[in-house]
Every structure is written in C-alpha cells, then in structure tokens.
C-alpha cells in the first residue's frame, strides 16, 4: 500500500497566490526550484484525511490552519507512487505571524553517528501561481491544476 499524506493548500485571488513552504534540513538548504511544498504530512492509520491535513499544517508551521471552508481537491500521485490528499481553502487574510516550524531529527553528517535537529520548514510565503509551478516539488504540481479546475468550476 502506498504511503499516503494529506495537506492544505491555502490560496487567495486577484492574482491567484498559494501558500508554499521551503522544506527544511540539509538536503534542501541550497535548493530553491522544486524544493517547496504545501504544508502536508503522513496520515496516521485510520485518520480521516481532512483531520490529518489540518494537523500537519499546524505541526509544520506552528500555526493553526485557518477556520475556513475547505474543498476536497482529491489525491495526486507522485512518480514514486506516494499519494497526497489535498484540501484547499481561500484565506485572503491569513498572515504568517507566529510562524514557528516543527522539527525533525536526522543523522548528520551521514554515517557520522550524530543526530541533529532541523526545522521541517525554514521559510513560508505566498507565491503567485506561475512562481509556485517553479517552486513546488514536481510531484505536487498536480495540486495547482486541481485548484485551477476547482476555481474555474461553476459554483
């Protein structure tokens, strides 16, 4: 069974912007293009996807997801086979005040026997849709397509 994650894609319009987060840790430190993600993480066994998405948003950013309506955009599949279930919400007033990312431990340097703590996310910002296509990891580009289809659909 493939690994399944859930995430939140916040957006605001005029022009369309989405909230993206630069992944933390040494592997992503010097990368800019295709090194960003929507706030997301692995689902716990039996956890409803929406609950997982909101929990992971708070864990990664140290901020609660806004209390808004979320549209279920469905699931995108990475080339690796990993699945990402995405919930989108319009949040024009969402500010990043208080951003305090969660952390993870990693053996660093590799094979050194030492562990170091790194932020899950080291930067978060609003990006216009065109920039987001350059920033997001390639496996998540489908979430932008799904958002654009959702916004173009009749209400």
Automatic annotation (TrEMBL):
Protein keywords: Hydrolase
This protein's record includes keyword Hydrolase: yes
Ranges where the Nudix hydrolase domain occurs: 1-149
Coiled-coil regions listed in the entry: none
InterPro entries assigned: Nudix_hydrolase, NUDIX_hydrolase-like_dom_sf, NUDIX_hydrolase_CS, NUDIX_hydrolase_dom, Nudix_hydrolase_domain
Keyword Phosphoprotein in record: no
Record family assignment: Belongs to the Nudix hydrolase family.
Protein name in UniProt: NUDIX domain-containing protein
Gene source species: Agromyces aurantiacus
């Amino acid at each position: 069974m493939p690994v399944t994650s859930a995430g939140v894609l916040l957006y605001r319009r005029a022009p369309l912007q989405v909230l993206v987060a630069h992944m933390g840790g040494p592997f992503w430190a010097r990368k800019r293009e295709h090194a960003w993600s929507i706030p997301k993480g692995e689902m716990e066994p039996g956890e409803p996807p929406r609950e997982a998405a909101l929990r992971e948003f708070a864990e990664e950013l140290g901020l609660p997801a806004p209390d808004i309506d979320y549209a279920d955009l469905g699931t995108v599949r990475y080339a690796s086979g990993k699945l990402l279930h995405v919930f989108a919400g319009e949040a024009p007033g969402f500010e990043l005040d208080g951003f305090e990312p969660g952390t993870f431990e990693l053996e660093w340097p590799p094979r050194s026997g030492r562990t170091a703590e790194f932020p899950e996310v080291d930067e978060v910002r609003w990006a216009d849709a065109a920039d987001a296509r350059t920033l997001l990891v390639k496996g998540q580009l489908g979430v932008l397509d799904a958002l654009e289809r959702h916004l173009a659909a009749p209400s």
